[in-house]
Amino acid sequence: MPMSVHLQKFLRQTPIADLRSYLEDLSPTGFAETGWTAPRNEVVDALVERVHALNLQTRDKLFQDVDRVCQFEGQPGRTALRMVVAANPEARDVFDTLTDVTACALFVLRMGDDVFDQAWHRTLSSDC
After folding, report:
1. How far is the first Cα of the chain from the last one, in angstroms, to the nearest whole number?
2. 11 and 56 in one domain?
3. Residues in Cβ contact with 118 at an 8 Å cutoff, skipping those fewer than 6 apart
């Protein structure tokens, strides 16, 4: 079965509230029974099982998103992501509360592919 090489990192690093919101939006029934308040390692183990149970289309979308989000690393990644939300005060205020670059990248991804792609292109330029 195809898998994202970044899935474990994504599941372990993304803050639980952000992870839950994203996954429940992706598949409202696929993650409904997750014990989100359990210890992190138990949550991750349960999520991996649920990911394997997703239909192929949903699982592929998840893997694509995970791989895109995990392209952003450290302060340069966070800077590139922040640059694309800077002009939107509401988005910027939410973004500034996020402490993990994975959560930041997921937030920007959920704003839309065009916004996310702008951030990715910034990482390729010398703007960051």
Report:
1. 37
2. yes
3. 84
Residues 88 and 116 in one domain: yes
> Could you tell me if 69 and 109 are in contact, meaning their C-beta atoms sit under 8 angstroms apart?
yes
Q: 33 in a domain, yes or no?
A: yes
Query: Among 72, 88, 89, 90, which Cα is nearest to 128's?
Result: 72
Contact 94, 6 (CB under 8 A): no
Q: Tell me: do 63 and 11 sit in the same domain.
A: yes
- Can you tell me the distance from the alpha carbon of 79 to that of 60, in angstroms, rounded to the nearest whole number? 28
Q: Is 20 exposed, middle or buried (0-12, 13-18, 19+ CB in 10 A)?
A: middle
- Per residue in 90-110, pLDDT (tens digit) is 999 999 999 889 999 999 999
Give CA–CA dist 27/5, Å, rounded. 21
Global pTM value: 0.86
Question: How far apart (Å, rounded) are the C-alpha atoms in residues 32 and 100?
Answer: 24
Q: How far is residue 59's CA from residue 65's CA, in Å, rounded to a whole number?
A: 10
pLDDT score at 2: 56
